[in-house]
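Our collaborator T.R. sent over the components below with a one-line note: 'Predict the complex.' Nothing else. No constraints on interfaces, no templates requested, no preferences about which chain binds where. So this is a plain run: every listed entity goes in together, and whatever single assembly comes back becomes the starting point for the next discussion.
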Amino acid sequence: MNGALANLGYRLKSMLRRPRFDLPLAGALLLLALVGLATQYSASDLDVDQAIAQGLRLLLGTVLMIVISRIPPSTLRNWTPWLFAGSVLLLILVTLLGEGRGANRWLDLRVVRFQPSELLKLTMPMMVAWTLNLRPLPPSWSTLGLVSVLIAVPAFLIAEQPDLGTALLVAASGLFAVYLAGIAWWRIGLVVVSAASVMPVAWHFMHEYQRNRVRTLLDPESDPLGLGWHIIQSKIAVGSGGLWGKGWHNGTQSRLEFLPEHTTDFIFSVFAEEWGLIGVLLLLLLYAFIIGRSLWIASNAKDTYSRLLAGAISMAFFVYVLVNGGMISGILPVVGVPLPLVSYGGTSAVSLLAGFGVLMSIHAQRRRVAT
Amino acid sequence: MKTRTIRDTRQESAVFVRRAIVGFLLILVALCVLASRFWFLQVVKHRELQSRSDENRILTRPLAPARGLIYDRNGVLLAENIAAFRLEVVPEQVQDMESLLADLKLTIGISEDDLDRFRSLVKSKRSYQSIPLRLKLSEEEIARFAVSRWRFRGVDVVPYLTRFYPRGKKLGHLVGYVGRIDAADAERLDASRYAGTTHVGKTGIERSYEELLHGEPGYELVEVNADRRPLRVLERVAPKPGRNLYLTVDVRIQEAGELAFADRPGASVAIDPRNGEVLAMISVPSFDPNLFVNGISQTDYNALLNSPDKPLLDRALRGSYVPGSTIKPFVAAAGLELGLRKPSDTVMSTGEFFIPGQQRGYRDVRAGGHGRVDLVQSLAQSVNTYYYALALELGIDRFSSYMARFGFGKPTGIDLEGEGSGVLPSKEWKQGRFGKPWYPGETVISGIGQGFWVVTPVQLASAVATISVGGVAHRPRLLHATQQGIGDAPEPVAESQAQPAIFRDPANWNAIREGMIAVVNGPTGTARTMGIGFPYVIAGKSGTAERYSRTTEAWQHISQVAIERHQVLFEAFTPAEAPRISVIVALEAGRGGGRDAAPVARKMLDAWLIGEGQVPSTAQSGVDPP
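Returned assembly:
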């Protein structure tokens, strides 16, 4: 028992001593986390407790990232079906007996309360990559059919919770793996066209509050104090920031509580108000760098499974930025998608950093010879 | 088929790289779209959204200016702003409002009116705003509240400024009062100037000089949060207080007159004939304007409204009085100036006057007549026959147009709102009013100020002031000077433009003045005791008119008594040769103008003497007139 503990201790030490990290990516993530903390601190009106809480979550995520980065991709590949099956099982469980504010997302395991849907953000691309890796690429119709089922079932369960934002992210991470596997462009076109044609059907199955969000997006001023309030106040916050911003902790929209959810989903508005267009462009540049660097790591992966997994994680990361940025600037409907590593909240930070752990692991096992 | 069965890892890798590059480019395009959206909001729409952000957080709070003070001509305070205390409640700090109100009601007493007003305010204001519950707390009430303050969370005693009239009912009508702005006021007032103001002038000087008294409001820019709760003051522009007013009125004359009225209903106006400055303006009975400032109670208001003497009616400004003999000097002026009489012409008074060819007689005051009288005697003894004949000779058209030159039949234009215009009888007026032709008998009685004649006290006073200086009219006015701040020098108001003299021949005026002097100083004068002991020569004229009002049953009964049958008036000016004050007194009941109204006028002239540096004669009793 003691020996096992000592062994674990030794392994942790060696992990920390020789991080097989991609330093540019790790540096960019650290910078992002710091920007996030600073914005948090300002948006919470200098609430030290909240900043510390978020810092601890980021720390937990970092530890998880380090641990995962030490697991070889081949091991991950072997675990993939079991992890996926387990997370889908939890998802079904939460659908049956979950709890949460208005939406059945949370699973209370006594020790920790978490959302099983977060697990799928990782296990979904793993499963799709694993499936595609079984057969030669580009995938055949039968493979695609199987993959479609793998993507659609969990996404549907999550959307029913209802959590459209996470469903979107989970589905996107699976679809990106298919895209990167080299599915023919005409097939992509076919999917897009058929997706567009089922839009009215989707509208029919959407919850009333989701429909209202879309309606509000189209005309926020029709209900300025109700549904339109979020979008209007967010646009005011962003626009009043101007080119250079109002300065750190000078954002009146968030400080005076005109902006709702200003530490979570609408933290980007606070950032835009306080740092202006210049700050926004620099932040988008940082995100672009992280996505680009992640895709570069994916390109250098040793095998197809690693490549598809890393690529899907990288591109899914982009969806967060686009959906959140589009929401707070009023070009996409209000969907509960956080700004990655900046919004307040534990589960998304931890699951994101776990994803980057996978990337680091793949990076560590990259091809030595580039051709 | 080959590619389907045999894995080409190199090919797969190449496909991946191509797809990753295309994917990354698409991501960059999407990020550029997002960036351009931010550029649109933060650069193109910046100005608009910046102002919307400011509208969100900045609230403009109006600051009401302090109202100007009102003084009399010598600096005696007539209206001021005093610190008072009111009880205010912050609803969000109160757990059980109803039990708190019940408790407060027991502790200091709160009326149902107050409770109703408070409840409607609670509904219209935000819960963190302090709402007044009781105004004008007495010291005892404050003490009682302070002792059990611990029980009243969210309740506080707050100081505020309220209008106070230290002279109370003595100048109630003249100074007027302020009251809470009501719906009618709100419609008439400039909303931006009155945003923070709660009270506005309702009557009297407070109303007519509202513009000067109000001042210019300031404002405060306050930062508020999403609940509209104020957090801090960003900018403050102080309000500019209203101007202080110095009235032409001398409270000593005013109060002496009011005292002399001894609660008998009537009115009096004193004017400096040299410039039209009103020295006193009395309406009896009066009311306490302080009652109205913070909302008069229904009981008090009903008492004022239902009192038979109508204390709310400003008799000096719009009371209606039959002038009677007081207009004889003006009729005489018409006769002399239009060449129908010479001062020495005499008329035989037999006690009754007949229109040639008619049966009905018009009586003199003294049975059997006054004998043969000239102009001076006609005034001194108030001989009706002299004026019956003169009016008939003038004819109603000439008569009316000449009287109009003294301002009868139209408002004087005094600086108060709601002035009455009286009635100057004429053919046109009667045709318009009753649709009937004019009869010569009506001309006859018009000659002695009876019939359709109605004057307002201020109108008669203005006419007397005009004739006393040989027919030079000044518009009567109440504002003497204005002052920006307490320390600043008062700035006199420009004097009104004098009209050209009405008398073409000074000899005519001299003759009339002789007659008016004889009224007070002659052995046969109708007010021959009035001038005793006065250092200057007083000229005057009495008037005793049949009452025409009060036609109720009760009145018919009382009217048997002579004192109740007449309206009595007196007009006077002094010093007779160069008048500095003219005064008229009207009483709604009395035996005769000389007996009842003249003594009131004398008291006022005595008070005027103090201002002239003279000791009033009442202090040196027993001294004979010079």
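Summary for T.R.: Chain A touches chain B through 52 residues (CB under 8 Å).
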